[in-house]
Amino acid sequence: MMTKDQYIESLRKLKMNVWYMGEKIENPVDHPMIRPSLNSVAMTYELAEKPEYQEVMTAISNLTGKRINRFCHLHQNTEDLVNKVKMQRLCGQKTSACFQRCVGMDAFNAIYSTTFEIDQKYGTEYHKRFVEYLKYVQDNDLTIDGAMTDPKGDRSLSPSKQADPDMYLHIVEIRPDGIVVRGAKAHQTGAVNSHEHLIMPTQAMKEEDKAYAVSFAVPTDAEGITMIYGRQSCDTRKLEKYHDMDLGNSTFGGHEALVIFDNVFIPNDRVFMCQEYDFAGMLVERFSGYHRQSYGGCKVGVGDVLIGAAALAADYNGAAKASHIKDKLIEMNHLNETLYACGIACSAEGCKTAAGNYQIDLLLANVCKQNVTRLPYEIARLAEDIAGGLMVTMPSEADLRSKEIGHYVEKYLRGVAGVSTENRMRILRLIENLTLGTAAVGYRTESMHGAGSPQAQRIMISRQCDMESKKALAKTIAHIEE
Ligand code: SF4
Ligand code: FE
Question: Is 174 helix (H, G, I), strand (E, B) or coil?
Answer without folding.
Answer: strand
